[in-house]
What does this fold into?
Amino acid sequence: MLTDIIDAMQTIHRAVTGVVTAPPLAEYPDSLEPMQCPFVMTWVGGGSWDEAAMGLHKDETTFRVLVLIAPVALGIIGSLLSSSTQLLDAFRHLYLDYENIQTLGGTVEQCGTITHEGLQIITYAGVEWRGFMLTIPTILKEIKTP
It folds into this structure.
């Protein structure tokens, strides 16, 4: 179930103008090259689940969406700030406007308030990258089958 949600999110992320790479979970690389960026990766950030009612499971899971734009070592601050802001705005519009976004293509019941931490330095595979992260809370309810 979680893998399906992540892969659905990555499919949606590939639609964002400017994204170069947004692979399915099973194809996440151990390292990145600048030509693969902007690169998007989604993973589980935490959650809880319980039996909400007799025969009904409720799963609340938060997903983190990491967007890596360029290695810090490239030092292209001005143009990077501009392109990062445009990309963050593109993700904002995607999550506000996409017709199936509240269910992530039907994989969850709903999404909660989406947040971001702005442009920051993020280490991935031992390399410092400029990028940003989105936090997306979701709710899924499943009927328990005997």
